[in-house]
Write a structure and sequence with these properties.
This protein is α/β, with parallel strands linked by helices and 307 residues long. The chain has helices spanning 13-28, 52-63, 84-91, 105-114, 129-143, 160-171, 188-201, 211-215, 235-241, 249-252, 275-278, 285-306; strands at residues 41-46, 67-72, 97-101, 119-121, 150-154, 175-179, 205-208, 220-223, 260-263. Helix 1 (13-28) packs across helix 12, helix 3 packs across helix 4 (105-114) and helix 5 packs across helix 6 (160-171). The chain binds phosphoric acid mono(formamide)ester.
Length: 307
């Protein structure tokens, strides 16, 4: 049966570990596995802008022996002139996987429903699961393990990154703390999924307004932009709402001395994070960006060989 990766819990915790182990091996031997030899093509569809996702998937598909086919949705028939279902029915006859960055989660779900090849969510309004594989790989590289560590996500608790952090980290047996204003709560399905995984692994899931409570003793500190793609008109209100949620060097003092700082990028220095944190000694953001490549290659190998 074809496997898709639309949200973090579309794989099991054991499969998550398997993909991360494979990513470590593939990072050490970047051209050793060629599941896309032919070359077979992978459709990379973008409804939103991107630097890391576009480059890491393009390079990753090529490294796997394949041909990356970038489709800017505004230049295709998808959406305005042709349904998602019909697009899936055409693409799956010519490509070996479909990677889609779009707005509604229901878009990738509909594509997957009608596709006979794996569909990968490369960011929706609700989840960014490929980013979490890269982030977990980075944590493992820097701190040597995942289970038992504590991650503090500070900022927009209703964002795709917050939802993915809750689910993916709980799956990995990490304690997850989300510090966010009350009006920016995560998806209930993400929170309930995280709590189920946390119960099984005896880890903790905390959602709080209090940044200091979340940051104290944390091994990993994470934030993301307060203004996600499509929210540009809300900038003024959001900047006011997230006052006090900037990750500063004073706040980093509350974390474990060996804590790492992560940000999926692009970053807005002076808003969600101060320059002396993201450009400082705790920051692992450039490794994190590179790890998109290795994690996604492992994910594609897993999905292509599981189908
Ligand atoms: N982190 C991330 O998804 O980066 P891009 O928006 O540049 O793809």
């Amino acid at each position: 049966m074809v496997r898709h990766f639309l949200r973090d819990d579309d794989i099991t915790p054991a499969e998550q570990q398997r993909i991360l182990d494979l990513a470590i091996a593939m990072k050490a031997d970047p051209y050793g596995l060629k599941p896309l030899a032919g070359p077979q093509s992978v459709a990379l569809i973008f409804d939103k802008t991107s630097t890391r996702t576009r480059v890491s998937f393009s390079v990753g598909v090529a490294d796997l022996g394949g041909n990356p086919l970038i489709i800017q949705s505004g230049e295709s028939q998808l959406g305005a002139k042709e349904s998602i279902a019909d697009t899936a029915r055409v693409l799956d006859r010519m490509v070996s996987a479909i990677v889609w960055r779009t707005f509604a989660q229901s878009n990738v779900e509909e594509m997957a429903e009608h596709s006979r090849v794996p569909v990968i969510n490369s960011l929706t309004d609700d989840f960014h699961p490929c980013q979490l594989l890269a982030d977990l790989l980075t944590v493992h590289e820097r701190l040597g393990r995942l289970a038992g560590l504590t991650v503090a996500f500070v900022g927009d608790g209703s964002s795709n990154m917050a939802n993915s952090y809750l689910v993916a980290c709980a799956m990995a047996g990490m304690n997850v703390r989300l510090a966010t204003p009350t009006k920016y709560q995560p998806l209930s399905s993400a929170l309930s999924s995280a709590r189920e995984f946390a119960t099984k692994s005896q880890s903790e899931v905390m959602v709080t307004e209090n940044v200091r409570d979340a940051m104290t003793g944390a091994d990993v500190v994470v934030t993301d932009t307060w203004i996600s793609m499509g929210q540009e008109s809300e900038k003024e209100a959001r900047v006011a709402d997230f006052s006090g949620y900037t990750v500063t060097s004073d706040l980093m003092e509350l974390a474990d001395p060996a804590a790492i700082f992560l940000h999926c990028l692009p970053a807005y220095r002076g808003y969600e994070v101060d320059a002396d944190v993201i450009d400082g000694p705790h920051s692992a953001v450039w490794d994190e960006a590179e790890n998109r490549l290795h994690a996604q290659k492992a994910l594609m190998h897993f999905l292509l060989t599981s189908a």
